[in-house]
Predict the 3D structure of the following.
Amino acid sequence: MKRWFYNLLKKRSYDSINEGVNVVQGISKAKSLYKELIKIAHPDRHPHNEEYYKKITDRITANRYNYNELLKIKRELERDLESVGG
Amino acid sequence: MMNIGVFLKNLLNSLLDGSFERLRIINAMNQSFKESFVSGDIDRMCKVSISQGDPDFKHPMSSFWFRSGFKISIVNDSYVKDTEYADIAQYILQNKTFIRQLMAIGFDTLIVQGANNKKGKKYSLKGYANLDSYFLE
């Protein structure tokens, strides 16, 4: 009974809530983000660093259903492209 | 504002589960689905709920069979293609962390179906969780 009451009141699990919201955002936004990233990171567009961008495109494909991971990759790509540009 | 029917349903659910965790995830997802639909990011309005699971998909952490299904219903389900059900399911089935979280709170079956046409698909969560060495069957 004590255990049941503890479970009822225990702190909310933010991890599972975040993951649930990530799934919904994936359903609504991941497809377009995936297409955008795969175009930006295509190895043919980066002949100076083909191997690196091949790895990035593999990561994008592996995470095509995971919106949070795609966002992380997008931030990395923006950083990379900024440092190359600057 | 939450109406009395929804409040009583939520209270019953949390008493049956012994925790509010399932409800919190479901409420957060429903809110997010609503926002995505209203903002125009998706054309299908979806709702998440607890449903009957498939007894064949049972695992050691499963709840009672009539509360072990994690159901995503497509509310505006006219002209839904079969591939759309599978497409929605992939966003859960490819997310191993979320599958394990669902299994840990007693779900064993993922159901994606139209709210009106009742067409859809169901999936065994344990089959996608990479727990081969743990389950002996």
